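@channel sequence for tomorrow's demo:
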Amino acid sequence: MPELPEVETIRIALSDKLLKCKILKVSLKSKKLRFEIPYNIKKIEKKYIKKINRMGKYLIFEINSGDKILMHLGMTGFFKIQKKYMIQKHDHLIFTFKDFFLTYNDVRRFGFIKYYSEYEYSKSDHLIRLGIDPLLRSFNEKYVMEKIKNKNQSIKNFLMNQANIAGLGNIYCSEILFDSNISPFRNTKNVNSAETKKLVISTKKILSKAIKLGGTSLRDFKNPDGKLGYFKNRLKVYNRENKSCYICKDKVKIKKIYISGRSTFFCNNCQK
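structure tokens (generated this afternoon):
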């Protein structure tokens, strides 16, 4: 599933191409995603995209009329930009512009696209429950300490909960915990202030590096221009089961376990 760095990479790429471009036509090839694509999305025809925002793993197209298009890529969703539209299996939605086409494709159909009027958008259930974006200045030691207070769960589950921190998933949670030397099993009530500070620093550092390198391409993720993300070459633990830890060298192998049904990679020696 695309996480914060991948979605931010897409936001940047689409912003460079789409801003102030008139949407000539919106074509629905297949409405069947996690939620059916609403027909009233065609209301944005003949209007233009004023801004593209991101909240956690969500993309938001701001239309000059005040309407909003909220999108989540699910597991396999991606956008492609083409000068000439070439149909591909699992294409769901096509935006026609003057000189190019923007297509949303989703093999597993776990993503979704929703249309909101300016009034409806402020009441979206998807965004009301969302936690803080970890790239904001307000994501700091104080915020995390307040959030983990009175909680009794693993730190991995805390980080994965989008109501606490928006945008993190299996890849970056594993990398962040390794960088901050905290075991994914550690209970939140046993994480102290100094460790919380290190966790925040590691989170911002790793996410920023991943964005700079275009995200992580392991299976399905690619940018709208077809380029892959190269942070996969910087992964220290994720997807490295039974390989030597970069810190411990040959002494310790990276382990893979499941926490709440989700894969987690870690070094049993570096992380306590």
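heads up for whoever presents: The CA atoms of residues 4 and 167 lie 5 Å apart.
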